[in-house]
Amino acid sequence: MAAPIRILTAVPICDGHDSAINTINLEFIRHGIEVVYLGYHRSVGDIVRAAIQEDVRAIGISSYNGGHVEFFAEVVDLLRKKGAADIRVFGGGGGTITREDAAAMRRKGVDEIFFAGTSLEEMVKFAHQRYGKPRGKRSRAKTSDIELARKLTEIEDGFSKSKHRSPKLQNAISKSATRVIGFTGPGGAGKTTLIDELVLRFLNKDRQLRVAILSHDPSVIGEGALLGDRATMINSQNDRVFMRSMATRGQAGGLSPATHDCLALLARSGFDYVIIETVGTGQEAMPFQKSGIVDQTILVMNPDYGSRLQLQKIVMLDLADIVVVNKSDLQRARTAHTEIEQRLDQNRRAQRLIDTVAKRHRDSGVDKLFGLILTSDKSKRGKERKKS
Amino acid sequence: MSKLGQVVESVEKYNQFVLDEVKRARTDQKFGRDLLGRWNDIKAKIPTTRAPTGLPLPRLALPEIDEPGEIARFLFGEGLPGEFPFLNGAYREMYLEPIREVESFEKNGESKASKSDKKIPQAEEPTRLFSGLMLAEDTNERFHYLTRHQRTHRLSTAFDGPTLYGIDSDADGVFGKIGEGGVAIDTVEDMVRLYDGFDLGSANFSASMTISGPAPIIMAMYIAAAKRRFGASVVPKLRGTIQADIFKEVQAQNETIFPIEPSLRFLTDMVEFTTLEMPRWYPISISGYHIGEAGSTPVQQAAYTLSNGFAYAEMFSARGIPVDQFGPRLSFFLDCGLDIEYIALARVSRRIWAIGMREVFGAGAKAQLYKLHTQTSGRSLIAAEFKNNLTRTAAELMLAYMNATNSCHSNSADEPFTTPSEEWIRLAAHGQAILLEESGIFKHTMNVLSGSPGMKAVERAVEAAILDEFREIERLGGVLAAVEDRYQRSQIQNASHRYEQQINDGVRPIIGLNRYRDGSDEIPEVKLARTPRKKQQLQVGRLAKFKKKNAEKAKRALDKLAAVVESGENCFPELLEAVEVCSLGQITGRLQEVVGRFRPMV
Question: Is the pTM of this model over 0.80?
Answer without folding.
Answer: yes
